[in-house]
Amino acid sequence: MKLATKVLKPTGKDHTATVIFFHGSGDTGPNCNEWVRFLLGNDMTFPHIKVVYPTAPLQPYTPMDGQLSNVWFDRKAISIEAKDKRKSLAEIYESVHELLNEEIQSGIPPERIIVGGFSMGGALALHAAYHLNTDLGGVFACSAFLNRDSIVYESLRNRTKPGTPLPELIMWHGGRDTLVPIEWGQETLEELRKLGITGELFPLKGTLHELKKRELLDLQEWILKKLPPTGTPSPKL
Predict the structure, then answer these.
(1) CB 99 within 8 A of CB 20
(2) CB neighbours (10 Å) of residue 113?
């Protein structure tokens, strides 16, 4: 299924990198873009980087008693202990593959693509970078987690090229988040680190299940370090 997208083109002449930002459950790409713009006071744009905000398909969502919602995949419950619904995940994988391949076929190397997102979108980004395509340039996850039986862990344990580097991870999480407790994010990072991921989680003091301006400013800085203009060496972080 081809996803609808909100695209922010590079503000300069050259497009040499891409960021894909997956929204949280019940949201849309345009709304996520508006939220980011509201917090920053302007769009999150870059001279050489295209920013893509896809919209999740409308489908029944079990935590909402089967009501239709724009969600990336269905889940049995919003709990780190819940089992992955792998059939539902497999369906969105096809769409994510299509998004990534569209960028790669346009001339953007995988290592010049960063994926990330908020909440469920952050979880999908972790699947994209550590299960679907480990050649990507990086991944960010805001207020997100992986289920304990996640196929992502399984995939990392069974890597065919265990010596090759994996995308770097950066996470933020609200210290007062009651929907997705920060402990779930911390456990996710700890498990990923055991499997070879380099990453860090930044707690957001006094923050609920939400994005914050400081977080987005730091994200912009991190993106520019990971995806500098072509010809500029990427610093080792």
Answers:
(1) yes
(2) 28
Q: What is the pTM of this model?
A: 0.95
Phi, psi of 155, rounded to the nearest 5 degrees: -65, -40
Return phi, psi of residue 160, to 5°: -80, -20
The domain spans of the chain are: 5-226
Strand partners, 49: 17
**CATH of range 5-226; options 3.40.50.300, 3.50.80.10, 3.40.190.10, 3.40.50.1820:** 3.40.50.1820
- Unique residue bearing structure tokens 């873009």: 33
Question: Which DSSP string do the residues of 62-95 spell out, in sequence order?
Answer: GGGTTEEEE-SS--S-SSTTSPP-HHHHHHHHHH
* Nearest residue to 61 via CA among 35, 16, 26, 97: 26
* Cβ count near 234 (within 10 Å): 14
Whole-angstrom Cα distance, residue 224 to residue 107?
19
Longest dimension (CA), the chain: 51
The phi and psi torsions of 79 (rounded to 5 degrees) equal -155, 140
How far apart CA 214 and CA 212 sit, in angstroms, is: 6
Per-residue pLDDT of 213-227, as tens digits, reads: 999 999 999 999 999
Q: Which amino acid is at 213?
A: K
Quick one: pLDDT at residue 160? 76
- Catalytic residue positions, numbered: 119, 177, 209
Structure tokens at 167: 């995308």
Could you tell me what percent of the chain has a pLDDT over 70?
Answer: 97
